[in-house]
């Protein structure tokens, strides 16, 4: 069916067909992603509601399923207020700076061994580079708002994001050491073999077990990196203000879209790096795209779970955790894995 | 015109424009942002050369980290633009000399290659060969001592920067988290047994 469609389009567009085909593939990734973002907000409110013995949104549509649509329409209809003295151009570009990297990074994310938009060799590096641009949205929105509160909030969040990028990057360095590749597809394939996988227990051969400290560091770092609770200094409404105090309407909504799109992205990365991507956990079930989605959903649930469970961190404790705990742990484990790989007990051959 | 050269001219035009705006923009934050744009376009040009490791490294390190810190500093400075523009003529000779030197250096490198005075030592690799792997292999075998030396110099630089900015701590009430987590209930609280008093 795909080939028939491909031929029909080739006849229709002629020389610009590759462009059209790639655009089509991009839409096929972005559209479900945005739908996922919308329903992640709904799911979050439902889950936190249940954990706090409430019902959560249940008024709009059956079981409240149309709530995200209603929220979106509400935000679209609201006015975008631009503060006086704000740097208008940068003020409006900043949310896009936050959102665009979260979408652009999906270009290299593999869904299974053939389904990937751009199968490049250095995809892990590409993802680290692209996601590091997201910090501009925060720092620029704080500055362009012409407000001291927004500015300080932007500085705080940006410093937090830069700090947690380092343990995240180091955790990924360990993963690429054991996989011997920077290609995300190869990283998944490298988790297929191992002693447990040969006995039909594939989930024990994935990277999370031999690299358990890195997995824990990565899981906590991605929560801090996406500015989520309990590290959500950006939106601690009751005690401090964040970088987006001056934003309203759709400009504000784009920051939220960026936050949730980033959550889905880092969950996908965690699934690919540490949880075996599309590989099946047990030998008697086939590998499938659905496993990847299931793993992403599980990591996303972890995000929501800890938001409902833990109180917010104090800012100096966040920085201490990043710099004085995670980075040393990463550096030690980097050395340990390096020696392990050189020793006769190397399990990643 | 082939598509590749179109992309090259497109990126180069953006890069030249951005580089020009870096030195002409009045607002220092705008200038820093134009520098980011210039870096980004440069990384695109490097990508065209199939130097994907350098290209991504440029974005990862310069755009993602160095320029953010740059922006931090520029945003927090209280810059008076009129004061900055004073003394343009007195700085001009020094600036002109530095720029002339830089032009001469670039001419030596680029012109030497162009006129065939240097043997071209850029190996032509196929698109399939992983650039990152070949760079890493060179760095950790043939050039391992220079790399180690450079990293030690950087490490010393970090330690020196920390030592220079470290101040004597004032007496703070901050609690050491290490002692905080080992605290037991009985260290903080005493449970007393008191007989109930009878009220007549």
Write the topology of this structure:
The complex is a heterodimer of chains A (349) and B (200).
Chain A (H helix, E strand, L loop, with lengths): L1 H12 L3 H35 L15 H11 L10 H17 L18 H9 L3 H10 L3 H32 L4 H7 L4 H4 L13 H14 L23 H26 L14 H21 L5 H28 L7
Helix pairs in contact in A: 1-2, 2-3, 2-11, 2-12, 3-11, 4-6, 4-11, 6-7, 7-8, 7-10, 7-13, 10-11, 10-13, 11-12
Chain B lengths: L2 H22 L3 H21 L3 H25 L4 H5 L2 H28 L15 H10 L3 H22 L11 H5 L3 H4 L12
Helix pairs in contact in B: 1-2, 2-3
Give a verbal description of the structure.
- The complex is a heterodimer of chains A (349) and B (200).
- Chain A has helices spanning 2-13, 17-51, 67-77, 88-104, 123-131, 135-144, 148-179, 184-190, 195-198, 212-225, 249-274, 289-309, 315-342.
- In chain A, helix 2 packs across helix 3, helix 2 packs across helix 11 and helix 11 packs across helix 12 (289-309).
- With 349 residues, chain A is mostly helical.
- Chain A is globular, with a radius of gyration of 21 Å.
- The longest helix of chain A is centred in the first third of the chain and has 35 residues, at 17-51.
- Chain A starts with a helix and ends in a 7-residue tail after the last helix.
- Chain A has 2 domains: 1-77; 82-342, no CATH class.
- Chain B has 200 residues and is mainly α.
- Among the domains of chain B are: 1-79, NADH-ubiquinone/plastoquinone oxidoreductase chain 6, subunit NuoJ (Four Helix Bundle (Hemerythrin (Met), subunit A), Up-down Bundle), CATH 1.20.120.1200; 129-165.
- Chain B has helices at residues 3-24, 28-48, 52-76, 81-85, 88-115, 131-140, 144-165, 177-181, 185-188.
- Chain B is elongated and about 110 Å long.
- The mean pLDDT of chain B is 85.
- Chain A binds chain B through residues 87, 90, 120-122, 125-126, 128-130, 132-133, 135-136, 139-140, 143, 151, 155, 158, 162, 165, 182, 316-317, 320, and chain B through 29, 33, 36, 52-53, 56-57, 59-60, 63-65, 68-69, 71-72, 75-76, 130-132, 174, 177.
């Amino acid at each position: 069916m795909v080939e028939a469609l491909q031929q029909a389009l080739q006849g229709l567009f002629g020389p610009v067909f590759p462009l059209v085909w790639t655009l089509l593939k991009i839409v096929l990734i972005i559209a479900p992603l945005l739908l996922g973002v919308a329903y992640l907000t709904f799911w979050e409110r439902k889950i936190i509601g249940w954990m706090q013995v409430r019902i959560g949104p249940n008024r709009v549509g059956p079981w409240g399923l149309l709530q995200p649509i209603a929220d979106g329409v509400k935000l679209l209809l609201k006015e975008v207020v631009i503060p006086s003295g704000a740097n208008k151009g940068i003020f409006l570009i900043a949310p896009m700076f936050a959102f665009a990297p979260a979408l652009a990074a999906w270009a290299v994310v593999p869904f299974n061994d053939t389904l990937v938009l751009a199968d490049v060799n250095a995809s892990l590096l590409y993802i680290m580079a692209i996601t590091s641009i997201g910090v501009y949205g925060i720092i620029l929105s704080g500055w362009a708002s012409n407000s001291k509160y927004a500015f300080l909030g932007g500085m705080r969040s940006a410093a937090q994001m830069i700090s947690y990028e380092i343990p995240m990057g180091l955790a990924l360095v360990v993963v690429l050491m054991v996989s011997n590749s920077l290609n995300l597809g190869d990283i998944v394939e490298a988790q297929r073999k191992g002693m447990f996988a040969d006995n039909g227990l594939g989930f024990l051969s994935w990277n999370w077990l031999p690299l358990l400290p890195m997995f824990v560091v990565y899981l906590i770092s991605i929560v801090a990196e996406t500015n989520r609770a309990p590290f959500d200094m950006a939106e601690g409404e009751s005690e401090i203000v964040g970088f987006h105090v001056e934003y309203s309407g759709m400009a504000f909504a784009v920051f939220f879209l960026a936050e949730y799109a980033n959550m889905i992205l880092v969950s996908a990365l965690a699934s690919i790096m540490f949880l075996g991507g599309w590989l099946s956990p047990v030998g008697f079930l086939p590998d499938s795209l659905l496993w990847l989605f299931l793993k992403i959903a599980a990591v996303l649930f972890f995000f929501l779970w800890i938001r409902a469970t833990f109180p917010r961190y104090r800012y100096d404790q966040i920085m201490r955790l990043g710099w004085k705990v995670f980075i040393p742990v990463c550096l030690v484990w980097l050395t340990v894995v390096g020696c392990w790989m050189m020793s006769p007990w190397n399990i990643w051959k | 015109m082939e598509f590749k050269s179109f992309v090259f001219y497109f990126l180069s035009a953006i890069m030249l424009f951005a580089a020009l705006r870096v030195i002409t923009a009045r607002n220092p934050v705008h200038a820093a942002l134009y520098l980011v744009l210039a870096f980004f376009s440069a990384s695109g040009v490097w990508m065209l050369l199939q130097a994907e490791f350098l290209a991504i490294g440029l974005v990862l390190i310069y755009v993602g980290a160095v320029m953010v810190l740059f922006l931090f500093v520029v945003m927090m400075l209280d810059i008076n633009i009129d004061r900055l523009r004073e003394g343009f003529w007195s700085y001009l000779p020094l600036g002109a000399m530095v720029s002339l030197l830089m032009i001469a250096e670039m001419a030596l490198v680029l012109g030497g290659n162009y006129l065939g005075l240097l043997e071209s030592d850029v190996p032509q690799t196929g698109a399939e060969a992983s650039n990152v792997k070949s760079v890493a292999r060179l760095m950790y075998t043939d050039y391992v001592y220079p790399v180690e030396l450079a990293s030690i110099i950087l490490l010393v630089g970090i330690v020196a920067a920390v030592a220079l900015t470290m101040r004597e701590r004032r007496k703070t009430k901050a609690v050491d988290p290490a002692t905080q987590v080992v605290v037991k209930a009985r260290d903080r609280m005493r449970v007393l047994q008191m007989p109930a008093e009878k009220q007549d």
